[in-house]
Amino acid sequence: MTPRLARDLHPVAWWVWAVGLATAATLTTNPLLLVLLVACCSMVVMARRSDHPWANSFRLYLLLGLAIVIIRVVFRIVFGGVSTGHVLLDLPTVPLPAWVAGVSLFGPITRESLLAGLYDGLRLAAIVICIGAANSLANPKRLLKSVPPALYEIGTALVVAVTVFPQLADSARRVRAAQALRGDSSGRVGRLRRFLVPVLEDALERSLALAAGMDVRGYGRAGRASRRERWLSGVLLLSALSGLCVGIYALLDHTTPRWLAVPMLVAGSVVAGAGLLSAGRRVERTRYRPDRWRAAEAAVAASGVAVGASIWWLGQVEPLMVYPSLETMPYVSTLALGGVLLALVPALAAPPPRQPIATPLEVGA
Question: Whole-model pTM?
Answer without folding.
Answer: 0.72
